[in-house]
Known about the structure:
The chain is α+β, with helices and mostly antiparallel strands.
Amino acid sequence: MRLLAGLLLSFSLVVGGFARDVESFNEGWLFKKGPFPTDQILFQSGFDQRWQDVIIPHTWNAIDMQNDKNNFYAGEAFYKKTYRPDASMKDKRIFLNFEGVASVAELYVNGTFAGNHKGGYSAFRIEISKLLKFGEDNEILLKVDNSSRPDVVPINHTLFGVYGGMYRPVHLIITEKVNIAVTDYASPGIYISQKNVTNKSADVNVEIKIENENREAKRVQLLTSIYDMDGKLKLKKETAINVLPQGRQFYNQDFTITNPHLWQGLEDPYLYKVVTQIVSNGTVIDEVIQPLGLRHFELKAADGMYLNGKKVPMYGVCRHQDWWQLGSALTNEQHDADLAIIKEIGATTIRLAHYQQSEYFYSKCDSIGFMIWAEIPFVNRVSTKEADNAKQQMTELIRQNYNHPSIYTWGLHNEVYTPINYTASLTTELHDLAKSEDPYRYTVSVNGYGDPGHGVNMNADIQGINRYFGWYEKKIQDMEPWIEGMEKEYPDYKIMLAEYGTEANIYHQQEVVGDVGDCCGFDKQYNETFATRFHEIQWGYIANHPYLLASYLWNTFDFATPASSQGGVEARNMKGLVTFDRKLKKDPFYWYKANWSKDPVLYLTQRRATERENKITPVTVYSNIGVPQLFVNGVEVKNYKKGTTHVHYIFENIELQEGVNEIEVKASYKGETYDDKIQWNYERNRNTRSDIRKPQENKNEHIGL
């Protein structure tokens, strides 16, 4: 029921109601992509040809960005649609709401320029009221371009591909001439702030931005009501206002909620509903509904996250939004599938990297209870021409998502460096902008330099650091002395491990691995066993060092990297715990599930490393339900040792028989018996490692790609 309630609280696009009409605008589009002739006469003569029917969400890169290195279309494309507004709508205000168009868009209505937008991940709205012919057919034409350019972040396709197209839904918004602002950076037009939040009381301020497109001032009533999760009215405030026709008008209403039901993350994601209405002569003429989760986040240096005064674990994963053969053109069902997997693993917090993600996704995080790190796509490289766009996208990120209780921090950048003076200065400006827009949340910036005191670091409230010990640099075990060094040198700083992880191709299997991965290249062996060892060791360090306020696995899912080819797969990053198609969860997924989740886990590792060459071998079991019983070919093995955490059981010196070996583990928990089984094929004199090179350690610090 709470998930459903969370969906109903999502902002204007799903509130419905007679006061503001919000209609799907996803059907009936035609599409064509370039390249197009540069000669204007040739361009015009062929423009009416080669159109195809598409339904939004849509991207033209669903296949090419995922199959070949640097072999994808980035350039111009067009969408067009015929729209016939009823003559009765002539006195209404009509807006188009685009949730995501990558990455530069120009809108034309009946051949007249209506507006544009730069940035592929934030929503934007354009009013088209004065350009429409009512009672007649109108042509809506959208020009889209996903080419890299130095003035729009991200400025390249290196870390991830910017899938071109209208890849998120489009809606038509119809309002009266007096309305809650629609085009305030595509925000809901109301901003809900909370202070002094305790279990005894909470102070809530609602700021409303109102516009009046009439020639004269209008006297109306501004009514804000707060409902509890059962739909009962908690508080109400009504204010008589005189809305001037020049500029936006700003109004504030204050509430004190006594004995509030707090939003307590996954434990209790309780949401109130804030309904703001404009009433004229007893009739509601506009209405916006927003979520209200009453909570207070506090990060304590070298300690952790306190939510409403209660310490909560920060078990973090990162999420890229693209899917195999779908690109970024996802439905809500795909978003739900990702959230279900993230919840299954036991994560409590998600870094939504490296860009603003779907409004639907943020709303579901509110109702599920995840703590969210939201960021802009200022990543990988600096052009010195992106400052204005980075600030625009930061403003859009904050205003569009201000009311989501799940968000605890705003991300300013990821792995951007030289020129250091410019980058540090721009980061400081982004921090100040974020604090001006939202003084109630943290900011965070991320780099790969291990020393927090580096020139590009420490310009935000939180310093996130990406480290890949054992993969891009040094050995797996070098993570712990790095943490201990920061504990000594920077004891009072808020530090997070923003990324860590390693590649794992499920078709690359190996029995025995070392402390260094086989990075990096198309002919390298990205074996799953190394990834498993990597995570077993490094989570052990992280769990024992609360100095790191949070850690974020890179990544939950494999994703497309169209500028690279690695580990025998074109255009793919395989650091995900789950395969690109979401069909298979790798061994490290169950490692974290056993450590993080409250659900019972009993799991045998190396289930895909079926062809064995060693007669004497260990067997590893993950169990969060007590000591497991291991049976090898029907014979119980009782001796085990504990690994890096309490769920880690290692049965050493297991002797395999020639041929097929049945490995089975059992455990009893709360009156139920759990089991897991795998098969290994042992063949004497088999040499499965004949083509495996010994990976070489990179002793230099890795700061990013």
